[in-house]
Design brief:
This protein is α/β, with parallel strands linked by helices and about 200 residues long. About 50% of the residues lie in helices and about 10% in strands. The strands form two sheets. It has a four-stranded parallel β-sheet with strand order 4-6-3-5. The chain has a two-stranded parallel ribbon with strand order 1-2. The radius of gyration is 25 Å and the shape is elongated. Bound molecules: S-adenosyl-L-homocysteine.
Length: about 200
């Protein structure tokens, strides 16, 4: 960062979205009173921020590093939008820490910084002006990570969806019972049967 206010605004964005590990690489100005003011309830992240001399040192322990860029970069990189990036980050943290790397306000990430990245993240924006304020880019990534983490943690408890075979059994049962009850009769079966099948499939029970 060149602007200490952006350190604070980024810390707040992270704190709001449940993230707490902020690492700064050679900030031009160290965190100051303005950083703390802009951080508000996230001031502890500013105080605990690790300051590193290089990107390499900052992400040394990470299994996945995604670099952010408003500009399309080298074709050698896989480019993800923020949502896809968040899903990959959350999945990666099962084994090792993962990082999102943001560039400075003036020049963004250098090619050398990008060399540490496994893929790039590009927040879709107006093609006429794609460069977001740094802390606002942080906010969007953190929000997507919050949502992706929620989905990931909901999954282990969730029961798997019914199989095609189970759905067919449900349908056969319904069909038999509806037939016996007189609900299905010649007049409506032709239309109703496929509709009910689709209803069941759409519900993904
Ligand atoms: N002038 C710089 C822009 C820096 S904006 C440049 O052209 O690269 C500061 C940082 O915010 C960027 O390095 C990136 O980390 C993030 N950022 C801004 N807009 C973004 C976007 N549309 N997608 C992804 N990251 C973005």
């Amino acid at each position: 960062t060149s602007h200490p206010g952006n350190i604070g605004a980024s810390a707040r964005a992270m704190r709001n979205m449940g993230l707490d590990s902020l690492v700064l690489v050679r900030p031009q100005a160290p965190p100051d009173a303005e950083s703390l003011a802009r951080a508000a309830g996230g001031a502890d992240l500013v105080r605990n921020a690790r300051i590193e001399p290089s990107v390499e040192a900052a992400v040394a322990d990470c299994g996945l590093v995604l670099g952010t860029s408003a500009r399309p970069r080298s074709a050698n990189f896989r480019v993800l939008d923020a949502r896809a990036a968040a899903a990959e980050l959350v999945a990666a943290t099962a084994t090792r820490p993962a990082a999102v790397l943001f560039g400075g306000e003036r020049n963004g990430l250098s090619n050398e910084d990008l060399a540490r990245c496994h893929a790039l993240v590009r927040i879709p924006a107006d093609p006429g002006y794609e460069s977001l304020n740094l802390a606002q880019a942080v906010q969007i990534l953190c929000y997507e990570i919050l949502l992706a983490a929620g989905e990931a943690s909901a999954q282990p408890d969730a029961e798997p969806p019914a199989s095609v075979k189970e759905l067919a059994a449900l349908w056969d049962h319904l069909d038999a019972v509806a037939g016996r009850a007189g609900f299905m009769h010649d007049g409506n079966t032709a239309q109703l049967a496929p509709r009910i099948r689709r209803l069941l499939a759409r519900a993904v029970p």
